[in-house]
From TrEMBL:
It catalyses: ATP + protein L-histidine = ADP + protein N-phospho-L-histidine. The chain crosses the membrane at residues 6-28, 413-433. CDD domains: HATPase (cd00075), HisKA (cd00082). This is histidine kinase. It comes from Dyadobacter jiangsuensis. It is an enzyme of class 2 (transferase). Residues 480-690 form the Histidine kinase domain. Keywords: Kinase, Membrane, Phosphoprotein, Transferase, Transmembrane, Transmembrane helix, Two-component regulatory system.
Length: 690
């Protein structure tokens, strides 16, 4: 009953756990289905509004999306993220809604107030930080902007989201470039390239093509501005090869790809011009100015190409060609209202005038240009008093201080935990030491008690053997006496028959004779019963017993005696259920094992083997002791003291145990025999039927 209960309980627990897991899976499936349904509906609505808002305006699109959100049941954080991100886009398109755009960014960041929300949605959180940094830059809060960028990138790095870090590196590089900190810009664009290499979105044209070739081109431009045209050309060629390798991956974007080739061509021309190779530079620039009807022409590309070509002609003293390019530049749309372009044109015109010998005109243009640049610089300094490198270093130092404080806090916690753990370990060690002492003390007491019990069992076994031998002797004596009494009693009965042969007895005499005859017959019958009865057969009471367990109990009892002689008992067995008289068969096994211990030397091995074979079970007890001499082998199973010998440690022997073993085994219908070589060892075998 207990075993069944033990099996039912784990089974019930397994069913409960399985049901619990199924419920969790169903709940997660429902949540996932709900989330997927919301995402599909909301994204479809946002895509539709994105197209129509350019016609109807941002305010109507915002009102429409608000109405749609009110119809969504059980809105989750993913719905809110999509909502605020698109609201940010819509309000950003309308220049009158800058304040609303900033507010939507703050609302988007507010969704990630908890650490759980940030951990569950790391990409969305990083993009929210990026948008917040962009807003702060527009508000000229440069320190807070860089702090936001640094915080976002550190968070992504801690989560292993290397690809997303590229957006932050690109932002910092662009700002550094605008602030003319070109070395820092190069460093962050190289970071961006390394981070983009970790992206695994093969269909993402922005990440896989635009950003990668753009970063390579930007590094080249920065190298040109620090007067390293050789390195610049390396990056431009690298970008050109990248475009060639990946153009076929994006068949729908061929217009942009052709345009990117023209931009790279112009950059390479500028680098060759900086190296002094004006002929190569001129050839490349003229290719840029060849109109390609398959792409949308860019005024900016034409303007920059003609500027480079004009500078090439100035450097090569071809002033008429330079003037022609400069006149073309002034006719391009948007040239008149661009201060930077006007400053460049004045510088070029001054160089052309100087080359033609008109020094007065050249001087006037240069002075006007110097004054314009001075005023522009003062204006820029008034509007922007920031130092990108300094701000980034400050943000990094603060971040390092925060990390150091967190590290100190962790180390303090670890120290407290270590002290507590040390104390706990000391307590545990003390308890183990105390329990070990108690265990050793108890083990010694148990060992001593076991020795006493074993000695008592051995003495008791010898006593039982002696009593059995005495009983056998008495049984033999009784049978001899009974046998010898048969003749006198038979003679007494016969004599009673012939007592009154010649004359009939009187009534009283007849009664006496009959009494004598009846008593004789009764005594004769009792003598017959004594002579027919066996000494052990009437005492066998069989039941199904585990022989392996019986043998083990004998080994357990005698192990102490074996340890005294530093002997080792090896027991190899198979399961064997056999009908036997447990008490008597135990005496057989105990006798055999006791003899093995008794007649084996110090530090020897005793091998016990129990093997089940069809309908027979065989026990063998092998020792490596003194063996049995040939002259005693015939007396081993006799009930005499002729085979009695002293053990290897002086143990006393009565020489009658094996005769009793033989009687008990044969009473079970089994066989017992031995194999022995004097001085080498002895093996006893007991075979019992099922």
């Amino acid at each position: 009953m207990n075993n069944q209960s033990g099996l039912l309980l784990p089974s019930l627990q397994c069913r409960i756990i399985l049901m619990f897991l199924v419920l969790i899976a169903c709940f997660a499936g429902c949540r996932k289905s709900e989330k997927t349904g919301h995402d599909v509906q909301l994204k479809a609505r946002i895509d539709s509004l994105d197209r129509t808002s350019r016609i109807t305006g941002s305010r109507k699109a915002i009102a429409s999306l608000d109405s749609f959100m009110a119809t969504l049941p059980r809105k989750n954080i993913h719905d809110s993220i999509l909502y605020f991100k698109f609201m940010k886009v819509l309000s950003h398109r309308d220049s009158t809604m800058n304040a609303a755009a900033f507010a939507y960014t703050d609302s988007l960041l507010g969704l990630f107030a908890s650490a759980h929300a940030r951990e569950e949605n790391p990409i969305d959180y990083s993009k929210a930080l990026l948008l917040k940094g962009d807003d702060l830059l527009k508000q000229k809060e440069y320190y807070q902007a860089y702090r936001n960028y640094y915080k976002g990138k550190s968070f992504l790095l801690s989560r292993g989201e290397i690809c997303e870090c590229a957006r932050y590196s690109s932002r910092i590089a662009n700002i550094s470039f605008k602030e003319e900190n070109y070395y820092q810009a190069i460093e962050y664009w190289k970071h961006e390239l390394e981070e983009l290499a970790q992206c695994r979105e093969p269909e993402n044209f922005q990440l896989e093509f635009i950003e990668k070739q753009g970063s390579m081109r930007n590094v080249g431009i920065a190298y040109m501005l620090i007067n390293e045209p050789g390195k610049a050309l390396d990056y431009f060629n690298q970008a050109d090869r990248f475009i060639t390798r990946n153009a076929a991956r994006f068949p729908k974007e061929q217009n942009f790809i052709r345009f990117a080739r023209i931009v790279i061509l112009r950059n390479k021309a500028e680098a060759y011009a900086l190296k002094g190779d004006n002929r190569t530079a001129e050839r490349l620039i003229k290719k840029c100015l060849e109109h390609d009807p398959s792409i949308d022409w860019s005024i900016d590309v034409e303007r920059e190409s003609r500027q480079i070509l004009a500078q090439i002609y100035i450097d090569s003293k071809e002033y008429d060609k330079a003037q022609a390019q400069l006149d073309s530049l002034r006719k391009l749309p948007g040239a008149a209202g661009n201060p930077a372009a006007n400053s460049l044109y004045r510088t070029m015109q001054a160089s052309i005038s100087y080359g033609r010998g008109d020094f007065k005109e050249a001087g006037k243009l240069l002075l006007a240009n110097v004054e314009a640049e001075r005023n522009g610089k003062l204006k820029r300094n008034a509007q922007s008093k920031n130092n990108v490198g300094h701000l980034l270093q400050q943000v990094q130092r603060e971040h390092e201080i925060e990390l150091a404080a967190q590290k100190d806090e962790r180390e303090g916690l670890i120290l407290r935990f270590s002290v507590l753990l040390t104390f706990a370990m000391a307590v545990i060690v003390y308890l183990i030491w105390r329990n070990t002492r108690k265990t050793i003390h108890n083990l010694r007491a148990v060992t001593k008690l076991n020795g006493v019990i074993t000695q008592s069992n051995i003495a008791l076994q010898d006593t039982v053997n002696a009593l059995e031998e005495s009983e056998v002797e008495k049984e033999k004596m009784l049978r001899i006496v009974a046998h010898d009494l048969r003749n006198p009693i038979a003679a007494m009965i016969s004599g009673a028959d012939v007592l009154f042969w010649d004359q009939p007895p009187s009534e009283e005499q007849a009664m006496l004779v009959n009494a004598i005859q009846q008593s004789g017959q009764l005594a004769f019958g009792l003598i017959g019963q004594i002579l027919q009865a066996g000494p052990d057969k009437k005492k066998i009471s069989k039941s199904e017993e585990d022989l392996a367990e019986i043998v083990q109990s004998c080994i357990d009892m005698l192990s102490y005696k074996g340890k005294e002689k530093r002997q080792t008992i090896h027991y190899d067995y198979e399961k064997a259920m056999v009908p036997v008289d447990r008490e008597k068969i135990w005496r057989v096994f105990s006798n055999l094992l006791s003899n093995a211990v008794k007649f084996s030397p110090q530090e020897s091995a005793i091998n016990v083997n129990l093997k089940k074979d069809s309908n027979l079970t065989l026990l063998s007890v092998q020792d490596h002791g003194i063996g049995i001499p040939d002259d005693l082998k015939g007396h081993i199973f006799l009930s005499t003291n002729d085979a009695r010998r002293v053990g290897t440690a002086g143990e006393q022997s009565f020489g009658i145990g094996l005769s009793i073993c033989k009687q008990i085994v044969e009473a079970h219908g089994g066989k017992i025999w031995f194999e022995s070589v004097s001085g080498i060892g002895t093996t006893f075998f007991v075979e019992l039927p099922d």
